[in-house]
Every structure is written in structure tokens, then in C-alpha cells.
Write a structure and sequence with these properties.
- By secondary structure, the protein is α+β, with helices and mostly antiparallel strands.
- Helix content is 31%, strand content 27%.
- Strands 3-2-1-4-5 form a five-stranded parallel beta sheet, with helices on both faces.
- The longest helix is centred in the middle third of the chain and has 21 residues, at 239-259.
- Bound molecules: adenosine monophosphate and glycine.
- Glycine (GLY) binds at residues 212, 226-227, 290, 294-295, 297.
């Protein structure tokens, strides 16, 4: 089968890598892809991002199945477009993708259906938002309603920060339309986990649990990023917590979307905050829904997946996920993100990447913001540059392997955390 993966990050490199393991996959096109997918066997990058141009490419090339990586094309309706043309594509429709593309939609949906999440209110009027902040006090969380590439959330520890966040989102329009409405919600405490499932509108298959590291620097300090590292499984997601997230969050969400006439097909990612206490009674709250896999969570998750990803996605597109069970490597996989100088505020591009980037059975260097220039040289081309991912018997071994590989790679200004999986190691 000829496949198309839409996107250019580490997640998409990992999707292409995992899909190609299927005996049914003959070739994977990645649009637009990166320097890592550029050098893979049986992979071709295609420099297209516009949804109509992607459709035309898929039709001309005889693409049999398309998998969408990031949220932007989903929110732009690429799935609707492909489906209308009779092409198979895995991802939610534009309406279903609102679970991610509008925080207000997601919050109202959760409230309507009793899905646990922080109390909130939505504002377009700055004065009303400021008044609400004063009535609630800090800490408090301010979120731009629309997609803001990880820049739309401020967890304010003081009221001053909270008022500033409202001013910058509603006031100066720095986030454009995404910031024209804000959600203000209560601050939850506990341990975060990423809980990702595949859904076909009716049936659900949960993927392995994982945990991301959103802050730039060690000890979870510094600014929020897209994710500086991840690992799977996440010990906080015990079997009891797994069952509770399925019963309290995922099943009600998929069922309610279907009942509302907006069946959700695709990867659904719930970012959950798990409060302190006993597993049977500790609180679970949804921080966010994403309508796609996580990046960098995908990299360790797919390194552990022993089942055929292509078969799974084909089953999902045929509304037959109930016929599938997943087989996981019990080992731990861990991804360390190497980011560029200045990330996340102002990522520098154009640094030459050298060193040992080859993969083996235990270590895979997934590319994100890289490109192969006309001289065949690998150059940094974005904020998150590489996701160095290792798999081993336990989290300590996986971490050692991943960091050994990181030290063999070099580019000017590289930033990475040295404490990925610290929570799991402390347990
Ligand atoms: P989001 O894009 O909504 O996941 O927010 C990004 C990050 O902000 C999350 O991963 C959390 O670390 C943090 N966050 C979001 N909402 C809350 C909340 N209600 N309470 C505490 N932290 C939050
Ligand atoms: N790593 C967080 C995300 O993909 O949204």
C-alpha cells in the first residue's frame, strides 16, 4: 500500500517509521516531512501543506490511506475534504477536531457530559475577565480559545500574571483570532499523564500510557514548550487509574460525541491531572483534549508497539476497531528532545548537526525540525530538532541509553533536559 503521512515533526517521523514495519506498506509519502524522513528507505517527502493540494497529490499518486499527524490540518478540515472525495484518511473531521481547536467547545462539552475538568468561565470582554480573576484569586489558569501552538496557556501563580495574560490575549491580539476568547479555569494540582486512544467513532483502543515534560528546563522549570521529552509507560497510570480514565473520561467522550452527531474518529489525547491520594479515590481532571497523537509521546509509544500500526488504522477507518487488540513491549521507552538555541521564545535555525544519528534496535533518533540541504548536510530547521528515543528493560536503562546517544550528537546551542522520567525514577 502507498501511504501518506501529513506533518513534519518527530511524531510524523515516528508514524512513518512504524507504518513501514507493516508488510502491507510499500511506500510512505510524508508531507512535508523533515531531514529524517528525507533519508529513509521507501519514504519520499513531498513539499505540500495546503489541504486541496494534498488531496490532489493523494489522488494522482494512488495513496490508499492517509494519516494526519498535527492539529492544524485537522482543524482546517483535511479529513472532511479527503472523505468527500472517497479517500481513506485517519483523523477527526473539522467539527470533531473542535475538542482541540476550541478550548471553550471542549470545556462546554465536558461540562454538558459530566466529564471531570477544572471549573471555568469563557470571556471575550477584558473587563469581565479581569473582574472574574479578582473574584477567583491566584493560582489560576488562562487559556486562549483557539490553536496557539503551545503558547496559549498561562498558569498564573499571582493575580498580576493573570491580569497580564488576559491583557496580552484579549488586549493586544498577539495570538490573533485564537486569543479573541479566553477560558479562565481553576488550577489543578497533581501529576500529569498523557492518555491517548484510537477511536473509530464507536469503538476505542487505548494506547500505552505516557508522560510528557512540558517545561524547558530540569526540575520542571522555565517556560512551557511543546514537550522536551516523554516516556512510556507512565507509572502514575496504574491499572486502576487506567480503568478510571477510560470509564470517567474516554468512553463518555467518544459516546457523547457520537450521540451529538459528531462521531470522533482518530487519535484522541486526554491530558489528565491525577490528584494526590489513593488510586480508587484520587481526583482525575482533564486539562486538555488533543485530537491527534502527542509529540514527543508518540516516539516512545510507537517504539513499544508490537502490533501492526497499519492494520490498526485500517480497522479504525473501517469502524472495526473492536476486532483489534494491542501488543506492547513491556519495556520502557524514553525520548529526550534536543531543541535549538533560543527555543521556545525564538528558535534559531540553520545550525549544522553532526555526530552519530544512526538508529539500532534499541535507539532511534527521530527527527523533528531538521532538513537535508542540497549538499546533503543535516541542518536544524525548527524549535525541537531531534527526539532521541531508547527502549530498554527499565526506565533507568532506557534513560542511560538515550542520554549516551544524545552525547554523540552535536549542534550549536543545543538544549535538552537531563532529567527526563524523573518522576518514574523517584517512584
Ligand atoms: P494545555 O495546552 O491545556 O494542556 O495546557 C498546557 C499545560 O498547562 C498543561 O500540560 C498543564 O501543565 C498546564 N495546565 C493546563 N491547564 C491547567 C490547569 N487547569 N491546572 C493546572 N495546570 C494546567
Ligand atoms: N506533548 C504535548 C502535545 O503533543 O500536545
Amino acid at each position: 500500500m502507498k501511504l501518506l503521512v501529513i506533518g513534519s515533526g518527530g511524531r510524523e517521523h515516528a508514524l512513518a517509521w512504524a507504518l513501514l514495519k507493516s508488510p502491507k506498506a510499500s511506500h510512505v509519502y510524508v508531507a512535508p516531512g523533515n531531514g529524517g524522513t528525507a533519508i529513509m528507505d521507501r519514504v519520499t517527502n513531498v513539499p505540500i501543506t495546503d489541504p486541496s493540494a494534498l488531496l490532489a497529490f493523494a489522488q494522482e499518486t494512488g495513496i490508499e490511506l492517509t494519516v494526519v499527524g498535527p492539529e492544524a490540518p485537522l482543524a482546517a478540515g483535511v479529513v472532511d475534504l479527503f472523505q468527500a472525495a472517497g479517500l481513506k484518511i485517519f483523523g477527526p473531521t473539522q467539527r470533531a477536531a473542535q475538542l482541540e481547536s476550541s478550548k471553550d467547545y471542549a470545556k462546554a462539552f465536558m461540562q454538558r457530559h459530566g466529564i471531570p475538568t477544572a471549573a471555568y468561565q469563557t470571556f471575550t470582554d477584558p473587563a469581565a475577565a479581569h473582574e472574574y480573576l479578582d473574584s477567583q484569586g491566584a493560582p489560576i489558569v488562562i487559556k486562549a480559545d483557539g490553536l496557539a501552538a503551545g503558547k496559549g496557556v498561562v498558569v498564573a501563580t499571582t493575580l498580576e500574571q493573570a491580569h497580564d495574560a488576559v491583557d496580552s490575549m484579549l488586549g493586544d491580539g498577539s495570538l490573533g483570532a485564537a486569543g479573541a476568547r479566553v477560558v479562565i479555569e481553576a488550577c489543578l494540582t497533581g501529576e500529569e499523564a498523557s492518555f491517548i486512544v484510537m477511536a473509530d467513532g464507536q469503538h476505542i483502543v487505548p494506547l500505552a500510557s505516557s508522560q510528557d515534560h512540558k517545561r524547558l528546563a530540569d526540575g520542571d522549570t522555565g517556560p512551557n514548550t511543546g514537550g522536551m521529552g516523554a516516556y512510556s509507560p507512565a507509572p502514575v497510570v496504574s491499572p486502576v487509574i487506567h480503568d478510571r480514565i477510560m470509564a470517567e473520561v474516554i468512553e463518555p467522550t467518544i459516546n457523547a460525541m457520537r450521540e451529538e452527531g459528531i462521531p470522533f474518529t482518530g487519535f484522541l489525547y486526554a491530558g489528565v491531572m491525577i490528584g494526590p491520594g489513593d488510586d480508587a479515590t484520587r481526583s482525575i481532571g482533564v486539562l486538555e483534549f488533543n485530537c491527534r497523537m502527542g509529540d514527543p509521546e508518540t516516539q516512545p509509544i510507537l517504539m513499544r508497539l508490537k502490533s501492526d500500526l497499519l492494520t490498526l488504522i485500517e480497522a479504525a477507518v473501517a469502524t472495526k476497531l473492536d476486532t483489534q487488540t494491542l501488543d506492547w513491549d513491556p519495556a520502557t521507552a524514553l525520548c529526550v528532545v534536543m531543541a535549538s538555541h533560543g527555543y521556545p521564545a525564538k528558535a534559531r535555525v540553520g545550525d549544522t548537526i553532526t555526530g552519530h544519528l544512526d538508529s539500532n534496535d534499541q535507539v532511534v533518533v527521530f527527527h523533528a525540525g531538521t532538513l537535508l540541504n542540497s549538499d546533503g548536510q543535516l541542518i536544524s530547521n525548527g524549535g525541537r530538532v531531534l527526539g532521541v528515543t531508547a527502549i530498554a528493560g527499565d526506565v533507568a536503562q532506557a534513560r542511560t541509553l538515550a542520554y549516551d546517544a544524545v552525547t554523540k550528537i552535536d549542534f550549536d546551542g543545543a538544549q535538552y533536559r537531563t532529567d527526563i522520567a524523573w518522576r518514574a525514577l523517584n517512584k
